[in-house]
Amino acid sequence: MPSRLAVLASGRGSNLQAIIEHFDNLARERIAKVVLVASNRADAPALIRAATASIDIASFDASDDGSTLLDLLRKARVDLVVLAGYLKRIPPMVVREYSGRIINIHPALLPAFGGAGMYGARVHEAVIASGAEESGVTVHLVDDAYDRGPIVAQWRVAVETSDTAESLAARVLAVEHIVYPRVIEMVAILQQLEAKTTA
Length: 199
Ligand code: GRF
Hints:
By secondary structure, the chain is of the alpha/beta class. It has one domain (3-198): Formyl transferase, N-terminal domain (Rossmann fold, 3-Layer(aba) Sandwich). The chain has helices spanning 14-25, 45-52, 67-75, 92-97, 121-130, 165-198; strands at residues 3-8, 32-39, 56-59, 80-83, 102-106, 134-141, 151-158. Strands 3-2-1-4-5-6-7 form a 7-stranded mixed sheet, with helices on one face. It is globular and about 50 Å long. The structure holds 5-O-phosphono-beta-D-ribofuranosylamine (GRF). Residues 9, 11-16, 84-85, 105-107, 173, 176 line the site of 5-O-phosphono-beta-D-ribofuranosylamine.
């Protein structure tokens, strides 16, 4: 049985698109499928991408204690929660129930250039301002603190001397689209193995 993925996204949804395409294109038995795309913003372009791919969508009020989100995840029988440009904090209630089963992608090499307020162009501006020669992509498990959970995978991207925040962001994003779907696949396989060995 494929793992059931929920993707939470607040914005453009290019990672969501890469994830949908990756699992649609897998020739072998499908490891996972996106069963729900949910957003705190009813007008998020990510929801349009999901609807176009005939995936169930939902927008929800993220200002409660997490019960609305938890209800959505339970009803869709979600195995793994994937954050892809989701800008709200995951409430403790949801983190507890999905402990070890929520992953996020960050467009830099955590623990550097992460934490509250570090998203979008700000991340790449900070990397360039620091003079770092490398940036990259981090996939990590989500716990109660922003960008602090255990790291699952990282991929390095060189910072060129001519880089602007925009050019660096574009190169990092292209790597995200390759790395994230494959790491999700790996996490889903490991979850399935674990479920078999503990059954
Ligand atoms: C990505 O850079 C991701 O690393 C970060 O938010 C951005 C989302 O982009 N968490 P998109 O909505 O997937 O295009």
